[in-house]
Amino acid sequence: MNEKQRLFWKNAVPALILVIAICLLEFLLSLLAKGSTTFVFWGDSLNQPMADLGNNAIRDTSNFNWTFIALFAIVVYILFSELKNKNYKGVSAALALYGVHWLYEIANAIIQSTTGYALWTVSPESTSFIILVGVSWELSMMFAIAGLAMSKLLPEDPKQKILGINNRILFAIMNAAFFSIFEIFLAGTPAFIWTYSWWGAIPVFVTTYIPFFLAAFLIYDAKTKTKIRFLSIVWGLVLLLLMTLIPLGVI
Predict the structure, then answer these.
(1) Domains in the chain: how many in total?
(2) Pairwise CA distance, residues 162 & 171, whole Å
(3) In the chain, which end has fewer C-beta atoms inside a 10 angstrom radius, N or C?
(4) Is 43 exposed, middle or buried (0-12, 13-18, 19+ CB in 10 A)?
């Protein structure tokens, strides 16, 4: 093992240990909450009838109301205010997380199209508009500023270590843990539906939210050229997929 590999593992091992510890904690909590209808850690095929309602309401305007416009205006105001204050790093973090979020939502919609059920589904009663099967307008607006909001917590020094972990990595893991734990509550409501027994809090934490926040916090400090390249690729792919798959009826 050369010096570069040794340094990589020296930095990676504490982060891996933390991720495993959080997974174990969530697993233990799932055992304690077994049978709970308030805190749901795993999906259930019994939820399929509720998911069917969501599947049939994608881009249906029956529940449209003016909160749609209000939320959009608030998000635009926040982002433009940050741009005016020259917080380009925060806005780039917002766009990075939001772009990666859209790629995940498109993938989730493709899963629904091919298997009948998505990994996560939103209910029509909980939203003014379902954009794709797993994301309502309200959720989308939240994710539009999540990277910006959480970047406010980052230490000034991108190289500072906490508990032996680079603070950007640590904050990505801890934010992912917070969001996954909050999703345990959401899955216990009629608004958010998991139908697969193998999908739940732990895979959401590891495979979804960690990448979201890693994208936000690593792009936050990236060089301008890297920011532009990353955001151009991610958002170019998002737009290409949406413009192709929606007209084809895939998503």
Answers:
(1) 1
(2) 10
(3) N
(4) buried
Collapse the DSSP code of 135 into the 3-class scheme (helix H, G, I; strand E, B; otherwise coil) and give the result: strand
> Does residue 10 fall inside a structural domain?
no
Closest by Cα among 130, 120, 141, 134 to 59? 130
Indicate whether 11 belongs to any domain. Answer: no
Among left, alpha and beta (phi > 0; psi -120 to 50; other), residue 115 is alpha
CA-to-CA dists, residue 133 to 73, 169, 192, 205, 216, angstroms:
23, 30, 11, 20, 24
- Is 23 domain-assigned? no
Tokens of 113: 């199209």
Model pTM?
0.94
Asked if residue 124 lies in contact with residue 63, where contact means CB atoms within 8 angstroms, the answer is yes
pLDDT tens digits along 1-57: 676 777 777 778 999 999 999 999 999 999 998 888 889 999 999 999 999 999 999
DSSP-based three-state secondary structure for 132: strand
